[in-house]
Amino acid sequence: MPEILSEALFDQARHDVEGDGEGKGRAGEQVNDLKHICKVLHARVSAFLQHDAVDDERLRMVQGQTTASLEVIREALQRYSLDEISLSYNGGKDCLVLLILFLAALATAPVLPRRLQSVYIISPSPFPEVDSFVTSSSAAYHLDLAHYELPMKAAFELYLKERPRVKAILVGTRRTDPHGGTLGSFDRTDHGWPDFMRVHPVLEWRYADIWTVRITSPGVLRMLMGQFIRHLDIPYCSLYDRGYTSLGGTNDTHPNPALRREAVGQAADRGGYRAAYELVDDEAERLGRDR
Fold first, then answer.
1. Are 124 and 251 spatial neighbours (Cβ–Cβ below 8 Å)?
2. What 3-state class would DSSP assign to 84?
3. What local confidence, expressed as pLDDT, does residue 229 receive?
4. What is the phi-psi region of residue 160: left when phi exceeds 0, alpha when psi lies from -120 to 50, beta otherwise?
5. pTM of the full predicted structure?
């Protein structure tokens, strides 16, 4: 397994954030710089796309979704320079898939910055587990992550004021999300909102595409996320192991009741709920949200 996707790397990233923040090894060299991470992920995604899916309809579907998503990202990179593009990242499952695709697409870029522009709009009453994962993953994947504890509109207004060159922001919205039904791959913000192009590479992905998973070892926060990342072991937010399927704040987000353990004698090792990847119904994804 590549070091960039290991728990050890995330531990190192967390140490770097708490220490000098430079992500350097013992001898002072840069550990897994952005270009290296992009090349490894590009190789993994390419291997996934070349995997024989003749007898696996689901795999063929997700390979098609992956190809389409990469095409949207590449079109964004043709329309905008890299310093005009940012990524909306909150540590959730959808934007994690988006992040992996974005990094893979950047493998052929002739020049990359040290870190990628990105923005984290913090939910009211955030989960400590979410904040911890955002911190470790953004360091591991070299994100220049701006944090805002503001309503979304105000947060984007301030972000674009501070980053005036940004013209497009990649967002992990899917078709089944609230307000996702009428979106296209490229949608300029509505009247009254700060002006930028919203780019939606994973718009057509289904919940099952994201969460067809295999846990690689008991008690380790590592998974193969979706048919798409069948060959990638990726750490993810621990709340998904405890029945949460859509993450907001502590005041409006609960384990999904569709995942409650009902059978007598079943172990309640996740607080009485099965893990998020056991849910298969798109319509049930947000049953754990108050709004």
1. yes
2. helix
3. 39
4. alpha
5. 0.83
